[in-house]
């Protein structure tokens, strides 16, 4: 009998993966934009890996290499566990009519892992840090580390999904992350002070470990595929008793939208992960208030990627029914904005509460800057979500724990634009707070909030246009 990871199976999975990539490339709406985006990613990666080596840096940056290596492990593993094994190269419904095996699915998830804002930003930061401390000659070790950690994260993600489907706590798989945390100290030493021989041997060891972890992930993916996805089945078969009818149309529509979010497995897992993970990092690192000003932007730009960039995909095929309800379009937009703002504010507040435990007592300007930063970045994220959702809708089934609201490259573009905007906002407000200019802090926040409010109003007016609304409904409900 042929085993799951026999050579014929691996060869067939590789061929299937190649066909899936061709299929995804053939269905890209704007191939030139995709080519430019990929080229930009390559350019930024090369620049991050080489340019910092040309500048003199303080010697105390060496101590940051090990925490940076550990952060890559924690974020990659946490994301894979929350996503139930990684992202899908082919959505669940189209995959049902194609003979795509779990090993092919595993390999596709490995390829998609780097196409996320969290992975890319941390990888660029690590490459820049290594270039500044160990030079360009140490970058092969860094690249091998990233490859091994990505393979480890996928293996842990599949292990967690296998445990979930056997009605066991998925967090029991997290001790496997110690496989990646344990060698951070020797790898950091090799990056900073290692010679050519030590670096070459480390690269070989990391590549061998990556190959073994890829094989282990394939075994775990096959094991998980043999079991039913219990979390998803439980949510879809659960009984929800009727509740009293709300007093207004807005309250009724808001209840439906809120239920669509919290009854979706990927949205619930993703929101909790994005609220807890940055807060845990801030708590472990003992970040002070000037750094906490940046955290709401990171959380908001992450949470809005769960469904906000394709806001109407919450309804799916049900959007046809929703459009038949006697509810004004403005009420529908108001309810959707309300629910999205709830998710963003909840995740941001959870992060700030965790980070504030060890941040000490803030000054009045610092406390005000954190509050205003949360409000401003939520406004920016909501306004961007409304614009992008109407301009570039996608048909997505968010029932799968591994689903994303848009194609991978589109998600990368959205995430980078949001991360840049919210980070610059945090830096501006943090700088004004550091200068104790409360008057300028309030003025800057008022201007930014006004711009976001104006954009939200414009997006609501566009949604009121029946022709534009019909075009979005036709795509999302397809």
Tell me what the structure shows.
This protein is mainly alpha-helical and 478 residues long. The protein has helices at 7-26, 31-50, 65-82, 92-95, 102-112, 117-133, 139-165, 178-181, 184-193, 196-225, 230-237, 249-262, 265-285, 289-292, 295-307, 319-323, 329-356, 364-391, 408-434, 438-464, 466-476. It starts with 6 loop residues before the first helix and ends with a helix. The chain folds into two domains: 8-17 and 42-234, no CATH class; 247-476, no CATH class.
Global outline: globular
Record field, number of beta strands: 0
The class by helix and strand makeup works out as mainly alpha
What is the count of structural domains?
2
Helical content (DSSP H or I, runs of 4+): over 70%
Unreliable residue runs: none
User: How much strand?
Assistant: under 5%
Report the end-to-end length measured between terminal Cα atoms.
41 Å
Radius of gyration from CA coordinates: 23 Å
Mean pLDDT: 85
**Number of helices in the DSSP assignment:** 21
Order of helices and strands: HHHHHHHHHHHHHHHHHHHHH
Secondary-structure blueprint:
Blueprint (H helix, E strand, L loop, with lengths): L6 H20 L4 H20 L14 H18 L9 H4 L6 H11 L4 H17 L5 H27 L12 H4 L2 H10 L2 H30 L4 H8 L11 H14 L2 H21 L3 H4 L2 H13 L11 H5 L5 H28 L7 H28 L16 H27 L3 H27 L1 H11 L2
Helix pairs in contact: 1-5, 2-6, 3-6, 3-7, 3-9, 3-13, 5-10, 6-7, 7-10, 12-17, 13-15, 13-17, 15-17, 15-18, 15-19, 17-18, 17-20, 18-19, 18-20, 19-20
């Amino acid at each position: 009998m042929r085993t799951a990871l026999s050579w014929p199976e691996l060869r067939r999975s590789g061929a299937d993966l190649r066909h899936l990539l061709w299929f995804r490339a053939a269905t890209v709406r704007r191939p030139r934009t995709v080519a430019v985006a990929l080229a930009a990613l390559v350019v930024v990666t090369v620049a991050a890996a080489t340019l910092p080596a040309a500048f003199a840096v303080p010697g105390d940056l060496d101590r940051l290499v090990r925490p940076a290596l550990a952060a890559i492990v924690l974020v990659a593993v946490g994301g894979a566990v929350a996503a139930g094994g990684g992202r899908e190269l082919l959505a669940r419904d189209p995959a049902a009519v194609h003979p795509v095996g779990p090993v092919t699915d595993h390999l596709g998830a490995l390829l998609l892992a780097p196409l996320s804002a969290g992975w890319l930003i941390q990888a660029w930061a690590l490459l820049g840090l290594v270039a500044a401390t160990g030079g360009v000659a140490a970058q092969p070790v860094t690249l091998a580390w990233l490859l091994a950690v990505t393979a480890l994260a996928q293996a842990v993600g599949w292990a967690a999904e296998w445990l979930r489907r056997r009605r066991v706590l998925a967090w029991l798989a997290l001790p496997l992350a110690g496989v990646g945390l344990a060698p951070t100290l020797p790898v950091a030493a090799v990056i900073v002070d290692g010679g050519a021989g030590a670096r070459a041997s480390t690269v070989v060891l990391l590549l061998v470990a990556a190959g073994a972890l890829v094989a282990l992930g394939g075994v775990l993916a096959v094991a998980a595929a043999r079991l039913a996805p219990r979390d998803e089945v439980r949510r879809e078969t659960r009984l929800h008793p009727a509740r009293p009818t709300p007093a207004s149309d807005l309250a009724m529509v808001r209840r439906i939208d809120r239920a669509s979010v919290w009854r979706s497995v990927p949205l619930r897992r993703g929101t909790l992960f994005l609220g807890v993970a940055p807060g845990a990092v801030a708590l472990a690192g003992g970040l002070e208030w000037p750094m906490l000003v940046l955290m709401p932007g990171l959380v908001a730009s992450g949470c809005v990627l769960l469904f906000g960039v394709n806001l109407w995909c919450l309804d799916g095929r049900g959007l046809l029914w929703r459009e038949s309800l006697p509810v004004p379009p403005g009420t529908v937009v108001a309810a959707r904005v309300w629910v999205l703002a709830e998710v963003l504010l909840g995740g941001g507040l959870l992060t700030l509460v965790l980070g504030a435990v060890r941040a000490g007592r803030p000054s009045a300007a610092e406390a005000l800057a954190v509050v205003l930063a949360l409000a401003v970045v939520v406004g920016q994220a909501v306004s961007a979500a409304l614009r992008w959702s109407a301009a570039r809708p996608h048909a997505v089934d968010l029932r799968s724990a591994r689903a994303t609201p848009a194609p991978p490259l589109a998600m990368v573009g959205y995430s980078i634009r949001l991360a840049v905007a919210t980070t610059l906002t945090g830096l501006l407000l943090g700088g004004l707070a550091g200068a104790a200019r409360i008057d300028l802090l309030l003025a800057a926040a008022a201007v930014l909030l006004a711009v976001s409010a104006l954009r939200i109003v414009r997006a609501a007016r566009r949604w009121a246009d029946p022709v534009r609304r019909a075009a979005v409904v036709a795509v999302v409900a397809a």
